[in-house]
Specification:
The protein is mostly helical. Helices cover 54% and strands 6% of the residues. α3 (77-93) runs antiparallel to α4 (116-129), α3 (77-93) packs across α5 and α4 crosses α5 (135-156). 28% of the residues are buried.
Length: 173
């Protein structure tokens, strides 16, 4: 994405710094929340019959499509990080219309997007289909991550907003 931009090097560096700070802050906040909610993952919920719901039954033989992490399920860290980074892109460019490619090491493919929302939709579906998350964990993480960078922007980007081209919220070609 950044290798094909015409933006000056300093603007590219500023955007990358904002993206990685957003990622780190979102993941840190997400893991703090995981320790508060201590929600079990779909694999545990399906393998065990302890949900108190007479309509559901345990399936001890069920295994997830991909290995699941050994930390609580809610909120979803991928939803937090992806949502925060997508919001930084939207704020930086002043629009959701940001074309980019995203290469997945899991599928060994590159997916192309013209806005950030389809990327976030794909992250939600992939984490649910992989057996790592319930939909609620993904949608709530995405929702809260979208609100988070606005506060970050007020406190951490004062200098960037005074510098001209590349500031957050300015429409760019």
């Amino acid at each position: 994405m950044f290798a094909t931009t015409n933006a000056p090097f300093v603007d590219q560096a500023r955007l990358l710094a904002m993206l990685w700070v957003a990622h780190a802050d979102a993941v840190d906040t997400c893991f703090d929340s995981k320790c508060v909610y201590l929600a079990w993952r779909p694999g545990s919920a399906i393998n065990l019959d302890g949900d108190g719901n007479d309509v559901t039954t345990a399936d001890p033989a069920r295994t997830p499509v991909v290995p699941t992490p050994n930390h609580p399920e809610y909120p979803a860290a991928h939803g937090c990080a992806s949502g925060a980074m997508a919001e930084i892109l939207r704020l930086y460019y002043g629009t959701d219309d940001v074309s980019f490619g995203f290469t997945s090491n899991v599928t060994a493919s590159t997916h192309h997007f013209t806005t950030t929302d389809p990327l976030l939709d794909e992250v939600v579906v992939a984490r649910i289909a992989g057996g790592m998350h319930f939909r609620t964990a993904m949608t709530e993480a995405r929702r809260s991550a979208r609100a988070w960078p606005t506060g970050w922007r007020r406190t951490h980007s004062r200098n960037a907003e005074r510098r001209g081209p590349g500031r957050m919220g300015e429409n760019r070609p």
